[in-house]
Amino acid sequence: MSEQKPEFSRVRRKRQNNKGNKMLNWMIAIVVLLIVLVGVKILSSDSAPKEKEVAITETAPDEETGSTETDTGTEGSDGDEKVEDSDQGADAGEKDSSKEGTVSDESGGDEESDASSKKPETEKEGTVTYTASEDAVVDETVSNTSWKPVGTTQSGNHVSQYDGKSVDWQEKKKALAYATGMTENEMIFLKIKNGGSPQKSIGIVTSKDKVKKYRVYLEWVDGEGWKPTQMDVLNTLDFNY
After folding, report:
1. CA distance 217 to 192
2. For the CA atoms of 221, 222, 226, 228, what is the dihedral angle to 10 degrees?
3. Chunked in runs of 10, what are the mean pLDDT values of the chain (241 residues)?
4. Which listed residue, of 31, 157, 178, 217, carries a Cα 20 to 30 Å from 13's Cα?
């Protein structure tokens, strides 16, 4: 075998060294690039604005409740005593949504919900019951557990009056209007009579156009006035009342 020339060996070693240097340079460049990328990412994350969660609590301005309350029976000019209980005008047992005595104001929805949330725990919504009747002149019988006495100015031993002008008579009319959901000016009082005992009465009433016809049963509550206990929805007035 012939020996390699010294010059060829030096060239070969030089080429190998150059190749090794190139590989080392590439590795160094890659490491430097990685370091630069990591540094840029760290700097960008530090400089970016941090989002903060802020809890915003909206406080509704205080609203005066009761500004839209209306009293039933206020349209009359005959001096009848007004019904002061606003709940009576919003009787849950009213079948006709067009009956007067309540105020519907869409803008006051929040106010109404606030007021309802502040009701005493003892005040609950009533249950309205509609019962079919076997009486030929009655379509159905209505009872409402939320009905309350309408109030009274009378004191002492109560005596039921049917004279058409006394305080007791006027309070009977008020209770009849309360049960039907109509105002006294919208009604015709066909008859108010004894209901079978000294402290019970029955009223036969209609709307002025005779479309709505009712027979309302009342009961006296000492110190609180006349309270509706039952209401018959009549289909005719052609009977002995």
Report:
1. 10
2. 0
3. 54 70 88 89 67 43 39 37 38 41 40 44 68 95 96 95 96 97 96 95 97 98 97 96 87
4. 31
